[in-house]
Amino acid sequence: MGVERIPRLDSFRAELGVWSRSAYCPNCSLPSSFTRSKGLAVWPEWRDELHMNWAAEGVILEVWECLFCHETVSVLHRSEHGFEQETFTAIVWPPQPVDELPPEAPTVTRSLFAEASGCEHQGYRRGAAALLRACVESILDDRDVSEGNLKVRIDALKDGDVDPDLVKDLHEARIMGNWSLHDALEFGADEVADVAALIEDAVQVLYVQPAQRERMRSSRANRRQEHKRGPAS
Ligand SMILES: [Zn+2]
User: Fold this and answer.
1) Which listed residue, 18, 96, 117, 175, has the most CB atoms within 10 A of its CB?
2) Helix (H, G, I), strand (E, B) or coil at 48
3) Is residue 233 pLDDT above 60, yes or no?
């Protein structure tokens, strides 16, 4: 049921001496192989990366070419303590599209989800986690489940015939949001992508499938009406 989400950013993490890699291509939207066309140090000095100090704070720009579509991806890496430590990575070209929920989802949920996706794909994972938690709250608001804290409100969905597995999934989003907000814990790209996929699944079950059933019901009713009226003369 769920949409397969490939983390766009993790595949382009800075790795010293790596000239080819597999990654999701933001141009052709396929898992592909890439070769590294260019790397430049852009801060604190603009210079060829061959002459930069890899152990110090700095920013490098890498250009990777997709071997399938031959278009390029530009990635910026910033390191505070040298490039063997974890770096902040952002894809600066092409512009990163946001994932959207289907139109059947509540407007507020769709807006929060799109913003969460923007954060997720730029590497702002705590922001993404907080916004995904807000998506769950907006779904509960939409369904008028308002009594108690978020944990109690999610559990209350079970009384409304919502599948217990789906309730469990919504708790996952709540917990990841709580830990990100209150304990400043940063989750991995895969974990944030997983929770985003859980929200997409929940929207399918709670909004898209009921809307589809309703559309089919009314088209059956229309057909019956037309049948009763008989063939047009
Ligand atoms: Zn490509």
Assistant:
1) 117
2) strand
3) no
